[in-house]
Design a protein that fits this description.
heterotrimer; A alpha/beta (405); B alpha+beta (144); C alpha+beta (230); B: 144 residues; alpha+beta; Arc Repressor Mutant, subunit A; Glutaredoxin; 2 domains; 4 strands; elongated; C: 230 residues; Ubiquitin-like (UB roll); Alpha-Beta Plaits; five-stranded mixed sheet; 13% strand; globular
Amino acid sequence: MPQKRVVLKNCGIIDPRQIATYLQQDGFKAWQKVSTEMTPEQVIEEVKTSGLRGRGGAGFPCWLKWDLARKSPGIEKYVICNADEGEMGTFKDKYILGNDPFSLIEGIAIAAYAVGARQSFIYLRAEYHYLLDLLQQAIKQVEAKGFLKHVKIDIRLGAGAYVCGEESALMDSIEGKRGEARYRPPFPTTEGLWQKPTTINNVETLMNIPQIILNGASWFNQIGTERSKGTKVFSVSGDVAKPGVYELVLGTPLRELVVDLAAGEKIKAVQVGGSAGRIVPYDKIDTPLSFETVLGSGAVIVLNESRDIVNAVYKSLEFLAEESCGKCAPCREGTKAIVGIMEKFSKGEGSERDIKLLEQLSSALPLSSLCGLGQAAPFPVMDSLQYFKDSYQSRIKEKKVGVVK
Amino acid sequence: MPEVKKKTKEHESVLVLLQEAQEKFGYIPEDFMANVARSLDISLSEVFGVATFYSFLTCKPLGRNVIRVCKSLPCCLKDAQMIIESVESELRIKPGETTTDGKFSLTLTNCVGACDKAPAMMINDDTYTDLTPGKISQILKKCK
Amino acid sequence: MMWMDVENITLTINDSSVSGREGMTILEVAKENGIDIPTLCYIPELSPTGACRICVVEVEGSRALVAACHTPIAQGMVIRTHSPKVLETRKTIVELLMASHCGFCMICEKANICDLRKIAADLEVGLPRFETEKRFYQIEDVSPYVQRDMSKCVLCWKCIRACREIAKKNVYGTAYRGFDAKVVVDCDQPLNKEVCRDCGICINYCPTGALTRPKKLGEEKKGKPLVISS
């Protein structure tokens, strides 16, 4: 089976409120190895050999972020754990945080050691406020065991803004400002939080770190495909009998996830990566899930044959337009314009001309938007135009009206 | 209006102060924002800018129980519209409104991360999942 | 002293080799070499914000276009400032801005000196085809020093930066989010600040007719005859 528990290894096995249960599962052995036997450079080298890439969606090599931040001049540095999982259809980090906060803390401890950071923040989305207590208790327990002498971990709560999952907006939010995207360069690794070198890693990325240290980079390196190492945790929702969180080896075909595991039937399309994700039609369901193909945050929304793709795209873009920070023109105006056109289609008023406009916007936004939100926003539009143009055209012909059902 | 403690820490966060006010008063009063601006030596417009950016902060008083029904795609696929309608008819308010007794406010929100148990909604900090119109009135009855 | 600076970075813009100094942006180097890249939110004396994205250019090896106003040059960069891809993208952005812009050029004070209109004309953007909602706000004419018509604002954030960085008064801020984003005073009150007396710096920076000097009735008759400059 392609299912393999690396990130979720302890979920459901340990008691997230009792550090003793985590220690029984080799908890903090990786940290002890790092702190007694390894230099920060060796840790970074190990992560480099492992091939671990960021799990938030962009897939940036994890070691490179660490290395750049480590080599940036300055004593004050930060490690941020991005727990602002806001992508529509994503709930894996919630599951991880609620079931195994200790692995995450161990990952942060190792990251801080490698980067040379003495302060770390976990940026938790407001919707997960109920996890705050659990996380704080976990940090306290780890501190009491003496594993966090080199770094202080604080939790900052978001306040309801999807764009704060974007790393530069996230930093502005921790600074207490509006969560607006910053232009790059400078990159966070040189001028990040409070203009200090900062690395920002997704929850899931950090969860992999203790396992890589414990089992060795070559063990991790053997899992997955050539450019996508390790496993990925997916959040499956929509038209499936068994929605939930699944961890699979990278490169596993989408079919195994949505048909074999989640028990989806009569699938029309799968939206992989959430609101700004890619739409995979059923005839491409054997596409492997990897950084080379489709992946994103791991949100997998299944649409069955009764669903209308145009409406699903409309809902996705509505989400993005509402969550756009409003700073840069193409995203602020462009997402709104797309929603306007999609609304016309949903009212049965769309035309061939509107399809041309959608195509024009789909090409301009990825090229010109300031951050990932605007750059990825038209993906569902593009994909639906490529694979489901007939849905649009039948609406033009029949003046079909309909809202999302 | 309560004074904002004069803080000298370099990295004092406007957002954190506003979150505290939101939790305490249920909204962010204008005087409070003015105090924050004074104590951190920034302009009121900057504080207002932060307060209006985040959807969990509000500058108008809300009801004691803030209901946020998820309206994103995964919940829509599971008939979120029916949930919205049943909350509306139960409380006789529309999204964006507050009941006259000040007990409930209803708003629609984007993905709350409970898509595997859709449809979902939040009441204050608690998430309610696998909703059906039948469950709504029970849940609302339990609210104080 | 310019001659002492070493132009140590060489790069290619539109097939010709040019050089620049460390720390210069693409826009600055282009300007020095007589290459005109349109800008809306950029002003040399203000910190860049990278918000309007009209100055985007193509850099070889980069998937997306990059904004010339804030991207530093690097050795060996190959840049195209007016490729079809760049022009198409710029046109779309300007068309989008025009679509939600509530100004009516015929009766606008800035009619022939409007930056947005000039850029649109240069890029041959006609009547915008997007039917987006138009931003509409009431005119704020309370202040005797600055009149604000936010319906004409294209959210370039110049006034905020000019007020903060040049006038050092910090009257404006950004509020709300997404399409609803707006330049506000205090808690979105109409502008009426005494600090604006004898200032009006923001007015000079506004690319459209959103910020103007209030006119007393009949004042224009006392002045010179109306000459429309371009």
